TrEMBL record:
One of its GO terms (biological process) is methylation. It holds the Pfam family Methyltransf_3. It comes from Paenibacillus sambharensis. Keywords: Methyltransferase, S-adenosyl-L-methionine, Transferase. This is O-methyltransferase. PROSITE patterns: SAM_OMT_I (PS51682). It comes from the Bacteria. The lineage of its organism: Bacteria, Bacillati, Bacillota, Bacilli, Bacillales. GO terms for molecular function: O-methyltransferase activity; S-adenosylmethionine-dependent methyltransferase activity.
Length: 210
């Protein structure tokens, strides 16, 4: 973590719900790869400021980002979260419930592409998306988000720098190639207004044009 990032985080008191989620993720032996705290708070602010009421999260992990997203929802808002591993959903839901947000989340368990196709087939539409799943799937997930997006929807995606591998031309693994493709698409797609925030591991943000 850079000094500026550490300084920014030091300004705010510990968050009991998010600390519980972090500790629970470690205790369950899950990877400690939740969204950075400052980006988690940004997600809350974006959901709240945009008035989003239907969020689609691709990759639940242990519920840290789910808490951040659901906190921004108003009355009647709902988070739909896709996760391939049943045991991760159990952990995530426990943390969401402990944070008082269990009634705002619905989990779909299985391969995200299958769940996305099912949602599209059911005519579902969303006004906020958060992608934080297998990196090789990011280009596909972006296209699914576009199919499921309401006009003006926000799309956020974490880890778009892959710990610096993206900018290293010697790195040519499948995850790196897929993430480069994702970044290039989100930057060039004329259906989107977008930017990439360069702190932490990179966060892509886009708004679907009306």
């Amino acid at each position: 973590m850079h000094n500026a990032e550490h300084y920014a985080e030091s300004l705010y008191p510990p968050d009991a719900d998010l600390q519980r989620a972090e500790e629970g993720i470690r205790a369950a032996g899950m990877p400690a790869i939740s969204v950075a705290p400052a980006y988690g708070k940004l997600l809350t602010l974006l959901v709240r400021a945009s008035g989003a009421s239907s969020i689609l999260e691709i990759g639940a992990l242990g519920g840290y980002s789910g808490i951040c997203l659901a906190r921004g929802l108003g009355e009647g808002g709902m988070l739909t979260s896709l996760e391939v591993r049943h045991e991760y959903v159990d952990v995530a839901y426990a943390h969401m419930t402990a944070a008082g947000l269990g009634g705002k989340v619905n989990y779909l368990i299985g391969d995200a592409r299958d769940s996305l196709a099912e949602l599209a087939g059911d005519g579902k539409r969303y006004d906020f998306f958060f992608i934080d799943a297998d990196k090789e799937g990011y280009p596909d997930y972006l296209e699914w988000c576009m199919k499921l997006a309401l006009p003006g929807a926000i799309i956020a995606a974490d880890n778009v720098f892959l710990k610096g591998r993206i900018s290293n031309p010697e790195k040519q693994g499948p995850s790196v190639r897929a993430m480069r493709m994702f970044n290039e698409r989100i930057a060039a797609d004329e259906r989107l207004d977008s930017t990439i925030l360069p702190a932490y591991d990179g966060l892509a943000l886009a708004v679907v044009k009306g």
